[in-house]
Model the fold of this input.
Amino acid sequence: MNNSVAHTANELLNAILQSPSGSWGDILPSSGDSINTAERRPITDPDKLKFLREIIALLLNGRRICASFNLTVLATLAILTAIHWQLKFRSRRQIKRLVKETADASKASPQTPDKPNNHNRHLSIEGSRDELPSSSSSSLRTGSRSPRQVVKPENHDIERQPLLGHQLPARVPLGVWRTIRCTVRSWLMYQPRPIPFINRSLPSNGTTLFVLGYIGANIFHHLYGGSFRPEMEFVFADRAGFMFIVNMPLLYLLAAKNQPIKFLTGYSYEALNIFHRRVGEWMCFEAFVHSLGMLLDHLFFTVDWLKEGDIWFFLRHPLVLLGIGAFVSYELLFFTSLGSFRQRWYETFLALHVVLQVVALVFLYLHFWTARPYVLACLIIFLADRLIWRLGLKSTSLQADIRVLEDGNTLMLSANWDIFQTKRTLFCRVFGPSIIQGWRPMDHVFITAPSLGRTHRLQAHPFTIASAAPGVPSKGDGNPFHAWLALLVRAHDGFTRDLLHYAQSNPTIKLRVDGPYGSTDALEMLLTSEISVLVAGGSGIAVVFPLVWELVHKQDHIFPQRQIHLLWVIHSSSHRSWLSQNRIEDLKRAGVHITIPPPTAEVGRPDVDSYIADLAERYSQSGAGMGLVVSGPDAMNRTARNACATAVRRGYNVRLSVEKFGW
Done:
């Protein structure tokens, strides 16, 4: 402990002893009020004075160390930002180089009649409703040059197989350093099996390592410079409370839809939202440690000459009651944010998430004097996101067509309008345009449907945009681009069930659309890959279809001979209506190799791992890089991730982007 802290502690103790009441609360409302046990008689015992100086110094030192945690967060953010933008600039330079090389090669080698001219194969994305992903009675067949049969036996258990199943690709000869690099990349990419009994999916090893690093940083700042003596239990519990409050700005930033972390690091809102949950879970643990520690300190560890009153006196103290209110509010936030609760009662989760956090902030503001700057910072973030941006600058009202698709349990929401060339503002460049100005592949929006009743007017539900992204009007020509927006909605309970009932008797609905939000990292990965593989499970086609369309109709000048493979796994034959036959045929004519196995309800799950392994082995001989995007249920995502991990470990140039279902 440094001399300045000890000197401050000594001055603070002298001020306490010279105050009229001799009470801690006059000087230390953040800690002294929590115990409210200072001797009201003058303290002259040297040992007691030494103890008080030590505990005050530990408290002050703990405040300083815990507050430095946000410096660690900022340093980590700076590193992630540097890595992201270095990779982004490299990717853009590579794309420019590939475009130039392709243009030079086109000038040097005239187009031959037997090869399709990729620059002239563009197909208009404008058309009628039926040309968007829509109902179709035609059957879909696999495209040409697809990998071998990908249907698994019905009794095949993917959880009991090795990383890649029975067919492993041949290993590429590697040097020592490349072997180490591939092994590390493969291990970071690998996703372990779900936790037994509760069947909770685990993230990839890389994500787990990052989360463990975050927890380790918290533990370090909690324990460093502290004391483990029993009589200093109060200091340990106090630090847990302070670690809770220093994490609050990060928690609220990660939850915001418009925030700088997404722009700086390139991570999508979905990815940041997953980390937001881990931060929230850790904070609830710290709140539990703080509350239990304070209770145990009063019962067992507080020295007799500082203790005042019994346990009921302690629990009835106003400051303790405020702390209990904050603790209960945040713990209720935790339990109502669990995946099982969100999936069954999403509307209740949304309402409680707003109400409980407001209540918790009020309790915390009154309970912990030192927390007030952090509470105010969180309130500013929350209000800026909810009241300024989400209800104003990025929200739009649209009149949308609504119809029920062939399976009877899926809806298509669609709208269209013209996009004109406009000058992009600074806000638009940093946080992205509103939906009226267009969107990018894989973007999602939040929709509100006031027509469904008063309970739905304040609810916003996320959906991925299932239609192709519109173009950007050229400067000066005055010709607009036409935007066709389509949202694929699976009816479950609550909002989606009410929306289904509404669609059965109404052809249109008025929506408030907030967004778009998303990331271009997956698209840029595919743009710089000679081989693009896209795997969709069920409604995951809403994620991968816009990517495929972008690659073959707008970005084919980068790799004119790019190989694109699309695997779409469906549960029922009626789900084929989610993507129109016209669009399937358009993609086939553009050269996309499409594989749609028989429905899993009829023949079982497909052998996705062997599908990926075959492609990796086929193109590895030419040294081509393969980029893979997968969007589907957790089991499919894990299978695809681990198939890529095995390919990477064996020396293949494979990159992966996983888009997870759920929020």
